[in-house]
Design brief:
The complex is a heterodimer of chains A (about 325) and B (about 775). With about 325 residues, chain A is α/β, with parallel strands linked by helices. Chain A has 13 helices and 13 strands. Chain A folds into two domains: about 210 residues, Rossmann fold (3-Layer(aba) Sandwich); about 100 residues, Orthogonal Bundle (Helicase, Ruva Protein, domain 3), CATH 1.10.8. The chains are: A alpha/beta (about 325), B alpha+beta (about 775).
């Protein structure tokens, strides 16, 4: 067996780092949950994506708290937060920024767009024209904006939390699959339970709940946490499992388009964050399995047969999860 | 369900069907008519097709099995329920009664006959039902439970039934077909297992092999199933080879000569020819089964026919035209038997084996009444009292009938004082002109000093049995022609019953005593039912009968005792109890005669061989039984060895993977369920739910899972001794299961026998997902 030379893995996080991370993440989650009631899983996934350095796509019908969640996440971090309300007439330059002529200095001066912030909330991203959508999505991957041959780096940490309505709603432009791929995870809020909804009425009946929300962490700490998450150990068997999962999506007859290599990368990164939140310096297959649906489902395109048969992409991910064996050493 | 999977399901179904039919075919030699095989094959096809169709529409597992059972039951009800079912299909209480009646009839039929058993509708129904049930069981084990390797043991056990009943004679082709179908089934189900996720391996092969973590999973899974498959293959091989290695298993070992007429060689149109053939061919086939009724004595000297004429070439039936009368009349009176002579009545029922193609009805002399279902064309000879069927109406093969007989019990004085033969018996003292002089000379010599017919007969008998230096051997040239008899009486003095009987009858005639030669069966061996006696080809015999006025025909036994007969009491000729009732047919009247406890058969070699034959059969059963036990014990031994190796062997510590494997196997053995291929915590989740909710047990499970996770996925792992954890979990699992499961786990550990349940069906998807958090 030939072994390809592997980069020496970074030392796994020590106990102190882990504790700091868990504490910070716990504060974040608690803060967000003070405004988003009864959605622990969604909040947890949002925190995982933040710590993994990814972008989050929130998809659901209007009025379930997508914007609330994204704002709450943004406000919990003491950093710059920008909000873009996507509309059909929004221009790419509104997002990225533009060079304007400064008559005094007689030069073109760059005016940063809405994307220059630590947390960028893209509200109803599928209402914008594809051109504007791609402007944002390019920034997401490159983490920089290039205007007139000059590159301007974005903030660090940089996280886009986009919300979108399901595609069948009126006046929407569905995100192209290549762009959906840039989001690390997609979560659906879902309707709250009856109790949660009643509690929401009681607590938020009057004032804006976001107004009281204070930051619980800062930009510096989030950047440290992201760095710490990167050191979580991923065993070869885990890499193998993640690869097997994405490969399985590419070969199943139910899908027209399977998960990309970027999806595999995102899956493992997210799993690292999830492991760290569990105070574990190593990733388990369970981390991968738990994140497979939010990380993979939005990237998949169903085959026409599967659409006719009423399959959802998340069903296919579940099927793949059930069929792919977790690699075991020595077997 | 994908097309590929449906095709695999169809292949599995085909092999299941072939396997069921092949195993059913092994039962064919037990019965005469194997039409049950076709009926069973049709029913099995219905059951298997139902399974294929239901699986093709992805019906739930339980539904598939239930559907197959319903179709099988409906089929059996329709075919054999005699219209008792609702719409002929749905079994009712009356159908159950019918089933019981069929079972009862089959049991009785099987009790009455030795293999091959004559045709009986109930028997066909039972055997066909067995095949249909087999198809269902095989299908469930192979398609649903994935217990294909264990299936081999089950089939072996079923195959032991015909093998045992046939005394080790197995149908090689049925066995080969069965083994082939089994191998096919093994291959298809194995491919099915791998195929459920196999195609995806193509993409991940490189990822799988890159890490040192393990071999590619399909190979590992094949390897894990190998011990069980190996056991089965060895078992089949042993079962196939063993019969060939043991002497009783193959008739062909004795088929040296004489039985050259082929399969239908037991036909009996000329009783003498047939006797020769059967004796010299050592045919062990069962010819008839006689059941004592109403306290009758043991049947001996069961006569087929008597030979009256002696010509140049030996004894023949003689001219019988006009001497017969139809059977439905009362039978003619017994010739020569005075009303004053002591006698006893006896009654027997007889079943002639279907392979015994006889025109002559086997009866104990002297028959007084015969009752059979179809007496057409059957006639009884008025002077011989032998019963035959007109040749064009076929034989008595497969016939069952009952008859009454009067057995004369003359005293010695009855015989000594019998008046000389009357004129009507003159034809029984005729000898052809070509009769060698030696016959009369020897007769005179031997009987010198005897002053009555009975004493002369005894003297002759004594001469043949002991004083004359005769030797019993089947190697002697067959026949009763004049040359043969002359040589028999002068030079070699070696022969078998035919020469002894004809020579004594001729000598008796030369002395003026009416004599004839009877052909039939001497004495059988005990059958399965009490009072039943089984007569085989080797029991065929010829004996002289001499006529005494007032008594009638009395059988004598000149054939020496080396063949193991019990000679009639007077046969010893040293009878010191003159008034003791004599009967050639009631050996119990003379308890101190030669061996009656172990009735012998005429064997081609010596009596010692006969006992060797039966003891080797015993050895065969012992060996078969021991082998079966051994094969059955293999899984338990393999399991115990594994446990010992994993827990507490060597250093006394249990490594993490050993602990994991041991817990897995224990859970599998106890039927607690274990899904391979999931993550460690997902794997133990169902087990956790089944065990008692006890903090200690939960802690043990957590310790185990965390150790496994650390060793597999953490950057570094320090081995800890998990022996106490494994012990604790073993106890917990044992507590959570029933005694029956403990026994099953000990005797047939599923972890050794079965391919473990693995992920691979979408049905399990939700289950696995629900466990992941």
């Amino acid at each position: 067996m030939t072994t390809t030379p592997r980069r020496e893995p970074p030392a796994p996080p020590g106990a102190d780092q882990t504790e700091e991370l868990v504490a910070a993440a716990g504060r974040l989650a608690a803060n967000i949950e003070s405004v988003i009631v009864g959605k622990t899983d969604v909040v947890r996934t949002a925190v995982v994506v933040l710590l993994a350095g990814g972008h989050l796509l929130l998809e659901d019908v209007p009025g379930v708290g997508k914007t609330m969640l994204s704002k709450a996440l943004a406000r919990s971090i003491d950093g710059s937060m920008r909000r873009i309300q996507f509309t059909p007439d929004l221009l790419p330059s509104d997002v990225t920024g533009t060079s304007v002529w400064d008559p005094e200095s007689r030069t073109f001066e760059f005016r940063p767009g809405a994307v220059f912030g630590n947390v960028v909330v893209g509200d109803e991203i599928n209402r914008a024209s594809p051109k504007t959508q791609s402007a944002l999505l390019e920034c997401m991957e490159e983490r920089q904006v290039t205007v007139d041959s000059t590159s301007y780096p974005l903030e660090d940490p940089f996280m886009v939390v986009a919300t979108q309505n399901p595609l069948e709603m009126e006046g929407t432009y569905p995100l192209p699959e290549a762009q959906r791929d840039r989001f690390m995870a997609r979560v659906s809020m879902g309707y709250p339970s009856a109790e949660a909804e009643a509690a929401m009425l009681r607590e938020h009946g009057g004032a804006d709940p976001l107004a009281d929300l204070a930051p619980v962490t800062d930009v510096k700490q989030v950047a440290d946490l992201v760095a710490t998450v990167r050191t979580v150990h991923v065993a070869p068997a885990i890499e193998q499992y993640a690869v097997a999962l994405t490969h399985a999506t590419r070969s199943t007859s139910r899908l027209r388009l399977g998960a990309s290599p970027r999806a595999t990368l995102h899956l493992v990164r997210a799993a690292r964050a999830r492991a760290a939140l569990d105070r574990r310096p190593y990733v388990l297959p369970d981390d991968i399995a738990a994140l497979a649906e939010p990380v993979l489902a939005h990237r998949l395109l169903l085959s026409p047969d599967a659409v006719v048969a009423g399959w959802q992409a998340s069903d296919v991910v579940r099927e793949v999860l059930a069929e792919v064996r977790v690699p075991e050493p020595g077997r | 369900m994908s097309t590929a999977r449906a095709v695999r399901a169809a292949w599995t179904g085909l092999w299941v069907w072939v396997l069921a039919v092949a195993v059913g075919a092994a039962f064919a030699p037990l019965v005469v008519d194997s039409s049950f095989l076709a009926e069973g094959a049709l029913g099995a096809a219905a059951v298997v097709l139902t399974g294929i169709l239901l699986r093709a529409v992805a019906a739930p597992r339980g539904f598939v099995v239930a559907g197959q059972a319903v179709v099988g039951l409906g089929w059996v009800t329709a075919a054999y329920g005699a219209g008792t079912g609702i719409a002929g299909l749905i079994p009712t209480g009356r159908t159950l009664e019918e089933a019981r009646a069929i079972g009862q009839a089959t049991y009785e039929h099987a009790q009455r006959y030795a293999a091959p058993v004559p045709d009986l509708a109930a028997l066909d129904a039972t055997l066909a039902t067995v095949i249909i049930a087999l198809a269902l069981v095989i299908d469930v084990m192979a398609s649903e439970l994935r217990w294909t390797p264990a299936l081999g043991l089950v089939l072996l056990a079923v195959l032991m039934i015909p093998a045992t009943l046939l005394g080790g004679e197995l149908q090689p082709w049925a066995f080969v077909l069965g083994a082939a179908a089994y191998a096919g089934l093994l291959a298809v189900t194995r491919r099915d297992d791998a195929g459920s996720w196999g195609p995806r391996m193509v993409g991940t092969a490189d990822a799988t092999t890159r890490s040192g973590a393990g071999a590619p999973a399909p190979f590992a899974r094949l390897a894990s199933a190998l011990p069980a498959a190996g056991i089965t293959v060895v078992a089949i091989a042993v079962a196939m080879l063993l019969p060939a290695l043991t002497p009783t298993a193959s008739q062909s070992l004795f088929d040296g000569g004489g039985n050259g007429d082929g399969g239908n060689g037991t036909g009996l149109h000329n009783p003498v020819l047939d006797m020769r053939r059967n004796l010299r061919g050592q045919s062990p086939e069962v010819m008839l089964t006689v059941q004592e009724l109403e306290g009758s004595p043991r049947p001996r000297y069961v006569r087929l026919a008597s030979l009256q004429n002696v010509g140049d070439r030996g004894w023949t039936l003689g001219d019988r035209i006009g001497a017969g009368q139809e059977l439905d009349d009362d039978l003619p009176s017994i010739p020569g038997l005075n009303p004053g002579t002591d006698r006893r009545e006896a009654r027997y029922s007889v079943a002639v084996a279907p392979g015994f193609d006889t025109r002559w009805l086997p009866l104990v002399y002297a028959p007084t009444a015969v009752s059979m279902t179809d007496p057409e064309g059957v006639e009884v000879n008025r002077s011989m009292l032998d019963v035959s069927r007109i040749e064009r109406l076929g034989s008595f093969a497969g016939e069952t009938y009952t008859f009454d007989a009067t057995i004369a019990r003359p005293t010695e004085s009855d015989l000594r004082t019998a008046p000389p033969s009357t004129l009507t018996m003159s034809s029984y003292v005729d000898l052809p002109n070509s009769t060698p002089d030696v016959v009369a000379e020897r007769a005179e010599e031997v009987t010198e000093g005897a002053d009555n017919a009975f004493d002369r007969a005894l003297a002759l008998q004594r001469w043949f049995r002991s004083e004359g230096g005769f030797e019993y051997s089947l190697d002697q040239r067959a026949g009763s022609g004049m040359e043969t008899i002359e040589r028999f009486l002068t030079d070699d003095r070696v022969g078998y019953c035919e020469q002894f009987a004809t020579a004594m009858a001729m000598m008796a005639r030369s002395l003026g005593i009416p004599a004839r030669v009877s052909v039939g069966f001497l004495s059988g061996e005990p059958g399965r039912a009490p009072g039943a006696w089984v007569f085989r080809g080797t029991d065929m015999h010829a004996w002289p009968e001499l006529y005494f006025a007032g008594v009638g025909w009395v059988a004598f036994e000149p054939t020496p005792g080396g063949s193991g007969y019990a000679p009639p009491s007077f046969a010893r000729g040293d009878s010191t109890a003159p008034e003791e009732p004599l009967s050639s047919l009631a050996p119990t009247a003379a308890p101190n005669t030669a061996p009656t406890a172990a009735p012998g058969r005429e064997t081609g070699t010596t009596a010692a061989d006969d006992s060797a034959d039966s003891s080797s059969r015993g050895v065969l059963f012992l060996v078969l039984g021991a082998l079966a036990l051994l094969v059955l014990a293999i899984p338990a031994v393999v399991r115990a060895t594994r446990r010992h190796r994993r827990v507490g062997a060597g250093s006394g510590e249990t490594s993490v993977e050993d602990a994991w494997a041991e817990v897995r196997d224990t859970a599998t053995d106890l039927g607690l369920g274990w899904t391979d291929g999931a993550s460690p915590r997902a794997t133990v989740a169902p087990l956790r739910a089944r065990l008692r909710d006890d903090p200690e047990i939960r802690a043990a499970l957590d310790t185990l899972v965390e150790a496994v996770e650390r060793s597999r996925y953490a950057p570094s792992y320090e081995d800890v001794d998990l022996t106490p954890v494994v012990r604790r979990l073993r106890t917990a699992m044992t507590d959570a299961t029933s005694r029956g499961q403990h026994v099953l786990a000990a005797v047939l550990p599923r972890s050794v026998l079965a391919v473990r349940e693995t992920r691979g069906t979408s049905r399990e998807a939700d289950e696995v997902l629900s466990l992941r958090e």
